[in-house]
Amino acid sequence: MRLAPRPRLLLLLLLLSMATSASCVRGRYRRVLWNEPVDPAAFAALRPGEDTLETCLQALGAPVRVVEHRVDAGRRSGVALAYYWLDSSSWGISVSPPRSSGVSYRFDSTGADLPGCVLWFDQQLVLERARAGMVGALLPQRRQPAPVLDDA
Amino acid sequence: MKHSLLVVSLCLPLGACWMGRAQTNEPLDAIKAAQLVPGTSKASDVVALLGGPNDVVQLGRRTAYQYIATTEKSAGLWLFALALTNVDARQDRVWVFFDEHDVLTHIGSTFESHRAQWALPWEDVHAAEDAEARDLARPGVGQ
Predict the structure, then answer these.
(1) For testing the chain A interface, which of B59, B70, B141 should be mutated: the one with the most A CBs within 10 Å?
(2) Shortest distance, CA B58 to any CA of chain A (angstroms)
């Protein structure tokens, strides 16, 4: 049986609608913006050995994360500030064959690490160094538990 | 006519758009944060003014309190089998640092939660002048 062009188009539309309604094939384009990047000029103007925690907080605002840095035997510590943000676009497609049981395929191009910068301060809270890059590579992934302060 | 109705009725359920908003914690009060005085305020003053912190970080003998609030606005569009989504999240953050005697030594603040916007993924909505206009409308931030 041969169909005329218009019914054929309708049949095609019907099949396409059925396939998409049943969620067989789904595509997505997603953009995620999370926080604002620090001002590159303000970051470039930081001077290790001269800037302090106070001047850096004034220049860059509040960090996302604060961690200990170089704790000595007397429990004196420096500080590391981490700033990070995200502006990423990703696309993906998922295919779920309707006749299979629990079989699906999914592709996602989203990255894992976040761009940002880290500032390290010594025990006197003077800037030691500042680095920009992927924050996961700049900072340790796990934070050590703080020691018990039994003589505080 | 019958065919057109069929096509329209098939297409109607396939297209949709949505907008969402998620708020994590109350936006921080910039006017209250400005009342904190390094060298004078104590941890108890900070807690009385800003409430309990979201996190307390031990820094050797020092400590730091984190206050944070996030506004997230999402918008999306379904076109047949393609979903176009945009998520815009902005934060208010205040970090206060104390010495070993719980006296405030440093404060760092960023107030941006009011800048989150609904948009589609290809739109660029964070122009500097737009951020300035929004800052001016928020007490304690743009003035």
Answers:
(1) B59
(2) 6
Closest to B126 (Cα-Cα) out of B73, B83, B69, B88: B88
A49: left (phi over 0), alpha (psi -120 to 50) or beta: left
Closest CB to B108 among A19, A29, A63: A63
A-interface mutation test, from B55, B58, B79, B90, most A Cβ less than 10 A away: B58
The residue to which tokens 């006519």 are assigned:
B1
In contact, B23 and B70? CB cutoff 8 Å:
yes
Mean pLDDT of A81-109: 72
pLDDT in tens, B2-11: 777 776 666 6
- Banded model confidence at residue A111, pLDDT cuts 50, 70, 90: very low
pTM: 0.79
Contact A35 B89 (CB under 8 A): yes
| Partner residue facing B60 (CB), from A16, A27, A76 | A76
pLDDT at A110: 44
In this predicted structure, the answer to whether residue B136 has a pLDDT above a threshold of 60 is: yes
Domains, in order of start, for chain A = 35-138 (3.30.1450)
Other CB atoms within a 10 A radius of the CB of residue B112 amount to 24
Q: How far, in Å, CA of B84 to CA of A31, rounded? A: 8
ipTM > 0.90, yes or no: no
Q: Give A62-93 pLDDT, tens digit per residue.
A: 999 999 988 888 888 999 999 999 998 888 88
